[in-house]
Design a protein that fits this description.
Elements (H helix, E strand, L loop, with lengths): L1 E6 L5 E6 L6 E7 L13 H8 L9 H10 L3 E6 L4 E7 L4 H11 L6 H19 L2 H13 L13 H6 L2 H11 L5 E7 L3 H12 L19 E6 L6 E8 L8 H12 L5 H7 L6 E9 L2 E10 L4 H18 L3 H19 L2 H15 L5 H9 L3 H11 L5 E6 L5
Helix pairs in contact: 3-8, 9-12, 9-15, 10-11, 12-14
């Protein structure tokens, strides 16, 4: 595989991981904007704007956008997070120009008032559906509790009230502030000709006017606390625990991945054997969220309400035990193999490599081949994993529970 990149005169960056052995190619437009870049007056606008990108342009109606994706057989979608909005598609190599034409055109949307009014109701309905999903609901509220006072506490979807009050003019102003070519990275992965890719991207995006799109990357406060959201309609207790973790720009992200895998991988981890295997909880896993200037270890537990306190105490005991003793060598070998296998299996398809390649560049302005990342991971010693867990103190948790319990 070959990596190459270039920057257009207006500041838009184009990167590519070319793999002649692949049978397909994937393209993505990575916009460095999300809920952390919003003010309270426009809460939810990043996600709402993502929807509006599919509602048509000066050249295409919403029907045209979806029809043309279907005509080239694309697997396509988009997502919005606290920090990024990504538009992507995977196609056969011969449709590279067509998919770039579509994505590039979409990123200069018409933002018609009638489409805005209709889609507003779609967003409000989506918020209601997510509110009916306990795992999402408790995670969002836990983020707000853990990052209180920092933009990372902002809700990605916003609220029904904030979305209802949003005006098209506010969305347009946000778009004009955040969708600068200097804030966009175009990524190609798989079997394609990079020079032809650049020519097509330049034709679609070279005229975009650049401007500053700054972000507050001050370290988040990572507040400790314990909260209860009592909802008798939720039959099980859903508990989210958050503690500080390395930033996405930090080398310590490698040992942090191993901390999360040893303690809380969905199979064969300490939480698995302590909570899932003895049937104390039906879900118990930890993940590592790397962020721009910060990070978090996130543990999720789901259990019968009467066993929720027991499950939480067991999880905390596993944290304390890890801080006292560190990982065993067999645990570390298993964790490394699981991460390496997962990354390799995902990376066999260009669509699976797209976000990894894109976010390496968005967060660190670097390209790291998958083999090198795996090599670096395997070189992390047990002492480094143990040191990272102690440095960020897994026990400095912010805990939030959602379910029928009033106290826990």
């Amino acid at each position: 595989m070959e990596f190459t990149h270039t920057t257009l005169d207006n500041g838009l960056t184009i990167i590519g991981e070319v793999n002649p052995a692949a049978a397909s190619m994937a393209a993505g437009f990575f916009v460095r904007t999300g809920s952390r870049d919003e003010t309270s007056e426009v809460a939810g606008v990043s996600h709402f704007l993502e929807h509006m990108m599919f509602k048509g342009t000066a050249r295409r109606s919403a029907f045209d956008v979806n029809r043309e994706f279907d005509e080239i057989g694309a697997s396509y979608n988009a997502f919005t997070s606290e920090e990024n909005t990504v538009y992507y598609a995977a196609v056969l190599p011969e449709y590279m120009e067509g998919v770039v034409d579509l994505l590039g055109d979409m990123l200069r949307p018409a933002l018609r008032q009638e489409d805005f009014d209709v889609e507003k109701n779609v967003i409000i309905d989506e918020i209601a559906r997510y509110e009916d999903t306990p795992s999402y609901r408790v995670y969002e509220k836990a983020m707000a509790q853990f990052f209180a006072g920092h933009p990372l506490a902002n809700s990605v979807l916003g609220t029904p009230e904030s979305v209802s009050a949003l005006r098209r003019e506010q969305m347009l102003e946000y778009f004009n502030r955040r969708y600068s070519p200097t804030n966009v990275t175009v990524v190609g992965v798989g079997r394609f000709v990079f020079d032809a890719f650049v020519v097509k991207v330049r034709r679609m995006c070279g005229h975009w006017q650049p401007y500053d799109a700054p972000r507050d990357t001050s370290p988040p406060p990572c507040r400790r606390g314990h909260g209860i959201l009592c909802d008798p309609k939720v039959l099980r207790e859903h508990v989210t625990m958050m503690s500080p973790a390395p930033a996405g720009q930090d080398y310590a992200r490698y040992p942090a991945q191993l901390v999360a895998a040893v303690i809380g991988d969905v199979t064969g981890s300490r939480l698995f054997y302590a909570l899932i295997d003895p049937a104390i909880a039906d879900e118990a896993h930890m993940g590592y969220d790397l962020l721009d200037g910060g990070g978090a270890f996130v543990t999720f537990l789901s259990t019968d309400a009467e066993r929720a306190r027991e499950a939480l105490d067991i999880a905390l005991a596993e944290y304390h035990k890890f801080l006292a003793q560190g990982p065993t060598e067999p645990e570390l070998v298993a964790a490394k193999n699981k991460i390496a296998s997962g990354s390799t299996l995902k990376g066999e398809l260009p669509m699976g490599r797209l976000t990894a390649v894109g976010f390496d560049w968005v967060y660190r302005r670097e390209y790291i081949p998958l083999a090198q990342q795996i090599q670096t991971l395997f070189a992390v010693p047990a002492e480094e994993v143990w040191k990272t867990a102690r440095q960020y103190d897994l026990t400095a948790t912010s805990t939030l529970a959602l379910g029928p319990l009033e106290t826990m």
